[in-house]
Structure formats: C-alpha cells, structure tokens
Amino acid sequence: MSRPAEPRPREGHGRGGPFPARHLPAGTAAGTPYDLDIRPENAGWAHSSLKVLTLAPGGTHTFPTGDSEWIVLPLGGGCTVATGGLSFTLRGRDSVFASTTDFAYVPRATTATLTSAGGGRFALAGARCARDLPARYGPASAVPVELRGAGTCSRQVNNFAAAARAGGADEQGFECDKLIAVEVLTPGGNWSSYPPHKHDEHHPGEESELEEIYYFEIADGPGGTPGLGYQRVTPSRDKGTDVLAEVRTGDAVLIPDGWHGPSIAAPGHDMYYLNVMAGPGAEREWLIRDHPDHAWIRDTWPGQPVDPRLPLHESHQGRQGQESRQGHQGRESRQGHEGDAR
C-alpha cells in the first residue's frame, strides 16, 4: 500500500507560525539543518521541542540550548557531545530497532556541539525549563526496559527519561526539570497507546497537563519494502485535536490535547516511536486518564502472555524486563496511573 502523493512544503515550513496540521509527514517540518524541527513557536504551544539531525561522516553541529533543557539521543550512529567544558562520547546504536542507546543531557543557557566520526542521525528532545541541572551522560545499561500490555497490545517501553514512578521500573528516573521522554517499540500487527488516554488537564494526583510529540520510524519488510502504521487522536474537548494518520519513517504527530491511541503497527513492520512531553505543572509528573469507553480492555490482559517477540532487542535490562514485568500488563487502574497506556 502506498501513500498518495502529497504536496511537500519547502524547507522551513512552519517556521513563521504554527504548523497548519497536527500530522507532519517526513520532510514537511524540516528546517536547516534539521530533518525535523518542532519548537513551541511552530507547534503552537509553550513547552516541548524535538529536532532530528543527520550528520555526514566527520560532520559537526553546534546549537544554543536557549531556555530549554535537551537530551541528545542517537537514532543511528554515534557521536561526541561537548558542552560547558565537558565531553561525552555516545556509542549510539545501529538503529532504533537494534538496541537501547546511551545519551547526553545538556542544560539550558549554554551551547552544545555534536561531532560524529562515522555519521549518523540524532534526536534532540527539549523542554523549556526553570532549573539549571548539570550536563551528564546516560548509559544504555541504566535504561529501564519495560514490557507493557498483553497479547496484541504488547509493547516495549525504553524509559530513558521517564518521570519517576513510585514502585515502577523507572522509580529513580533520570532527572530533568520538565522534560519527559521515552521510546516505544511495537511488534508488527500490535496496538500501542491503547487503551486511548489523555493528559491535557491538571487534576492533582489523577492527570497532568502535558504536550506531546510522537516521532515515528517503521521497520522495512522483506526486500526493503517500506513500512507503515497508523495513529489516532480523538478530541477530548470541543474543536480538539482529531487525527487519523498513516505514518511512516520520519513522520511526527503533535498532540496538545485529546485522547491519543491506538498507535497501530502494520503486520510485518515493527513500529518505533519517540515520545517527548513537557507541561506547565510544578511537578514533573506523567499522570494519564484512560478513555472511559475503552478502559475495560485492561481487564482482558491478566492471564494473557506478553508477545513472545518482546523484547525486540536485548539490552542490559531487557531480559530482566521480560522476566520481572509479566504481571504489569494486568495492573488495574482507570485514572491517575502514570504512563500505563504508552
């Protein structure tokens, strides 16, 4: 199945104002030198950013961090990150489907320089913030890998910068001021972000207000056949976000509000997405509400096995995640749970 031809706006589309749509096909949200350049100014919101940068072998790029904190996350390849007199060597990975990755945190009000001897692609996930935290390295071995759901709702979550959850896989968390970011891997044919959930209002202890970016990569099929998936967002308020999009590698979806999910991986094509979130709350929290029409699906999970294809890749904690979190898929929680539907 091929996507119908779409008009492709010139480079820098959206730089003068908000994007005209919430689904951003690959290339339509580029801005020199970025393949993807989402900022509060062009997203039409206040907090979250995501840039994707491709560097040729030997390539280098310097960017000002401004009023935001950033995580440099290799998508494919490795690099060094130099900032504030410090230098972090990121081994990276071959692809998002190959392994977890190490990463670097860069604080606000400074500059960072990426240099890649072998070339690669790198995500810069950012959030406007108020605190000055130290630049530091995040090892791949410390990334909590969690298996969620059951059966055809099974998925893998790499909680590299999730908000801390009491008793959760990421109880200690990776400290940021406002930024929350995780990776989700969904085997072909499965549904993620299900049941649909939202986090667009502040209800203490029940729901946090967070903008969210979904950035997608889809695994090719046999012979290099390009993959595809689908993303749904339904309105949670009058004139709210309403998206039904066929997504491919390099696409992004902006979610300022609304019930988001499912994220559907086509059979034969594993799906990856990077979630970047931030909001105005005083606490860095990830509290979500399930859609009341679909929350019952959780009651079907106890006793079902997690998809045996998971984890999609081995990591330091991947096998531990498979063995110790089998019971997580049946956790009953209708609202106020943190990240369960991811």
Strand content: 35-45%
Figure out the total of helices.
Answer: 2
Q: Assign an overall shape.
A: globular
| Strand/helix succession | EEHEEEEEEEEEEEEEEEEEEEEHE
What ranges have pLDDT less than 50 throughout 5 or more consecutive residues? 1-15, 166-170, 316-339
Helical coverage, percent range: under 10%
Distance from N terminus to C terminus (CA atoms, Å) equals: 27 Å
- The number of strands is 23
- The structure class reads mainly beta
- Determine Rg (CA atoms, Å): 19 Å
Average pLDDT, all residues: 88
Task: For the structure shown, list the relevant keywords.
globular; 23 strands; single chain; seven-stranded antiparallel beta sheet; mainly beta; 2 helices; 3% helix; 342 residues; disordered N terminus; nine-stranded antiparallel beta sheet
In short:
The protein has about 350 residues and is mostly beta strands. The chain has two helices and 23 strands.
How is the secondary structure organized here?
Blueprint: E1 23-24, E2 34-38, H1 40-43, E3 48-55, E4 59-64, E5 68-83, E6 86-93, E7 103-106, E8 111-116, E9 120-128, E10 136-138, E11 145-148, E12 155-161, E13 180-186, E14 191-192, E15 197-198, E16 211-218, E17 229-234, E18 243-247, E19 252-255, E20 259-265, E21 271-278, E22 288-290, H2 318-324, E23 335-337
Antiparallel strand pairs: 1-19, 2-3, 3-9, 4-8, 5-6, 5-7, 5-8, 5-9, 7-10, 11-12, 12-13, 13-21, 14-20, 15-22, 16-19, 16-21, 17-18, 17-20, 22-23
